[in-house]
Design a protein that fits this description.
The complex is a heterodimer.
Chain A lengths: L2 H21 L4 H16 L1 H6 L4 H13 L4 H13 L5 H24 L5 H24 L3 H22 L5 E5 L6 H9 L5 H8 L10 E5 L2
Antiparallel strand pairs in A: 1-2
Chain B lengths: L11 H4 L5 E2 L2 E2 L1 E8 L2 E6 L8 E7 L3 E9 L14 H14 L3 E4 L6 E12 L6 E10 L11 H21 L3 H10 L1
Antiparallel strand pairs in B: 1-2, 1-7, 3-6, 4-5, 6-9, 7-8, 8-9
Classes of the chains: A mainly alpha, B alpha+beta.
């Protein structure tokens, strides 16, 4: 990469990776590994960029972020920060696009390991990912970068198929409304004929005190 | 509006008519029947008055088609409309004998992927330039125990492929990107 591109690319790397460190859980061995990898990369970023060898360390950073237990939603925030940047030089644009593509691949890898409770959870993720994929597919198509375009399309298709298959057996979320504020035990019994699911009702509706839950809430269809 | 022929009558079904063919091999369709139903097994029990008819699933769709190929007054680009009717006859016969599945399109029915279970080609001396195909088709369906792909594994593989692609594009920028970068510099 040429010197001008390197200079323009450094802020892109800094912004995205600093946001990654802000949102990723940095405790424990995996967190330490992530901090070390990001720190090492940012210290040597100009060398990596000039030699066009910045791909493998970046790939490793996003994989380490996944291993820290970072969520899809957190990584989505990092992606949004990266997408909001407006670099001018092509080298910096290449860095920005590549980092977003790494994020998309990592998000899909995270989704593969996720456990969903209801179809609504799946549809929320699907909407987020569709919004994330669409601009990158447009960009790849406009750049005539066929290999990246087909890889993005294949990944998007695999994700949609996986989410559709995952959502199929899941129950739907339904709204309920009772006549008075009831304990979660009573609500669970009324909804599911199973009072032992009271904690599930509490967690789903973020109820502060289980004895006095709001009259209106959400529950699963089975 | 004066109606001069029966085709001038407004009839929506006529607009949907399609040329009959089996895997693009065309024929004129004289009759086309579709047969389907449920596989009902009736259990009759000793010392009981009431039987029990158990539904064991849908029957395979069967088609019995009588098609014909006839000599056309002039040679056209369409194989079915030729002076030599044997060209279309031989092509259809060869296709039926392959035994391979293919889409069957009847004039007013949705296409179905079928296999030909048997056919009869009839030519009569008094009808020169004309032959009749009596064909039986059965729905192809899907093979049993077809393993469904694991969406989890598929997602892992495509995710890894995406990362590999990004690495490859970084290590070797595309020619178009390289040229534009140089032009910008």
């Amino acid at each position: 990469m040429e010197r001008n591109d390197v200079k323009a690319s450094v802020p892109v790397c800094n912004t995205i990776l600093e946001q990654l460190l802000v949102l990723a859980p940095t405790r424990g061995r995996s967190g330490s590994d992530l901090r070390t990898a990001v720190g090492d990369f940012l210290a040597n970023v100009e060398t990596y960029l000039r030699a066009d060898t910045w791909g493998p360390p970046l790939d490793s950073i996003f994989d380490l972020a996944r291993l820290t237990g970072m969520t899809v939603y957190q990584l989505e925030e990092v992606r949004k920060v990266g997408a909001a940047l407006t670099p001018i030089l092509l080298g910096a644009i290449l860095v920005q696009n590549s980092m977003i593509q790494f994020i998309l691949a990592t998000q899909c890898r995270m989704i593969a390991d996720m456990t969903f409770v209801s179809r609504e959870d799946v549809s929320v993720i699907q909407q987020i990912m569709n919004n994330a994929f669409d601009p990158m597919q447009e960009l790849a198509a406009d750049d005539m970068d066929q290999a990246t375009f087909s890889a993005l399309i294949a990944l998007h298709a695999a994700l949609v198929f996986h989410l559709a298959q995952t959502a199929r057996p899941l129950p739907r979320m339904l709204s309920y409304e009772f006549y008075a504020a009831l304990p979660t035990l009573v609500i669970a019994y009324k909804l599911y004929s199973d009072a032992s699911r009271a904690d599930e009702v509490r967690a789903e509706n973020k109820i502060v005190h289980p004895a006095f839950s709001p009259r209106i809430g959400h529950g699963l269809s089975n | 509006m004066a109606i001069s022929t029966i085709r001038d009558l407004p009839s929506p079904w006529r607009a949907r008519l399609l040329p009959a063919n089996f895997d693009t091999f065309m024929f004129h369709c004289e009759t086309g029947s579709r047969e389907n139903g449920r596989r009902i097994v009736t259990h009759e029990f000793p010392k009981k008055d009431l039987p029990y008819s158990e539904d064991m699933g849908r029957r395979a769709i069967e088609f019995n088609v009588r098609g014909y190929i006839i000599q056309y007054p002039a040679d056209t680009g369409v194989p079915l409309y030729q002076r030599d009717y044997t060209l279309a006859r031989d092509a259809l016969q060869a296709r039926l004998e392959t035994g391979l599945p293919g889409p069957l399109q009847l004039p007013l029915q949705d296409p179905v992927v079928v296999v030909c279970s048997r056919y009869r080609l009839t030519e009569e001396e008094k009808f020169g330039g004309y032959c009749v195909f009596d064909m039986s088709f059965v729905e192809l369906g899907v093979p049993p125990f077809n393993p469904t792909p694991s969406t989890y594994q598929n997602l892992l593989q495509t995710s890894q492929a995406m990362r590999n692609q990004v690495l490859a594009s970084i290590a070797q920028p595309t020619p178009a990107a390289s040229i534009r970068m140089k032009m910008q510099i």
